[in-house]
Amino acid sequence: MPITNYPEYMLPAGKPGQLSNFQDYMADTYAVETVVPFGAAVQLNAEGTAIKPIATGGTVIGIALAQNIHDYVEKKDDQNYQVGEPAAIVKRGRIFVVAGGDVVNGHAVKVDPATQKFVATGAAVIDVSNAVFKSNASADQLVEIEINLP
Question: What is the pTM (predicted TM-score) of this model?
Answer without folding.
Answer: 0.84
